[in-house]
Write a structure and sequence with these properties.
- The chain is α+β, with helices and mostly antiparallel strands.
- The protein is globular and about 60 Å long.
- It contains 7 helices and 17 strands.
Amino acid sequence: MTVTFRVPEELSARVPAERRAPGRDRDAVRLLVSRGTEVSHHAFAELPLLLRAGDLLVVNTSPTLAAAVDGRAGDARVVVHFSTRGDDGRWAVELRDPDGRGTTRVRAGTRAGTGVRLAGGARLRVEEPLSAGAPRLWWARVSRHVPGLLREHGRPIRYAYTERDRPLSAYQTVLALPSRDGSGSAEMPSAGRPFTARTVTELVSRGVQVAPVRLDTGVASAEAHEPPYPERFAVPEATARLAGAVREGGGQVVAVGTTAVRALESAAGPDGVVRARAGWTDLVVTPEWGVRAVDGLLSGLHEPGASHLLMLEAVAGREAVARGYEEVPDGRYLWHEFGDVHLLLPSWPRGADRPGGQSGTPHTARCVSNTR
């Protein structure tokens, strides 16, 4: 990654946009726009003016879960972050220590056989690491139905840069759709948070289409920047067909969030055609891997070291990402899930090499068919 920067503490978004001043809504955030290496500054409410009739926004409809639950491991207080439901009924979890300030810190010493008494009387037993490369997450069995446990005793995962606990509604996007089985995302697909019903209505009225995908995000703690773990995703037939029709008609397919990129690229074949697909994906989008289905990306601001920055490079090119992030500190943009957003759009014809020589390697997404 060629971009080097640090996140000043005062630029962490500690409260939601609608809580920063009376009369504001979620869309009261700023929008940094990169068209190649050209940068401009906007309000998020201007998004409908920045896209063209015939463009397509692909949004993640996964609902956010109240995925943090208090418990005890022996005599010690712990907080369990529920990440991902496996096919065999187990859950990938992270055990964390309360830090005395209402948030948590990394916990050492989790091992197979660790038992946790959860709020509400449920029991959890840790069985094995998620994978050799995922030391924080463990597969665990829980004595009761986890979605019900989360509804009754869970709260949204919160990190130390936020001011205080917020209700689940603060972490739910207007794009979210409930699932029949109670599954969802451990952490909010935050690129969609600034959208309001008014924004979506104006986009559609201007001829910008909106189509759903689903990718249930796992935990991604603020202390670590591992590549994303395998996650469940689904690209509906209607979305796949619409993505193809938009590109054939000269429109742009713009993903709302890195999760939407991962879902679309996991459903794209070597020919770049998106097909209906559902299951698990372990695809990690990098400049070397390239993108085939996505032309632009609306994303939050990512910290140095975050693997998502490589995805931004794959979509927009290294020079564009570096140039955009040069503007962030001076422009006083705010980071994290309650912060400002970045729209990366192409400045090159489709099919031409992308800036920095990244034209995208033909690929077939690797999907995990039997992830636990």
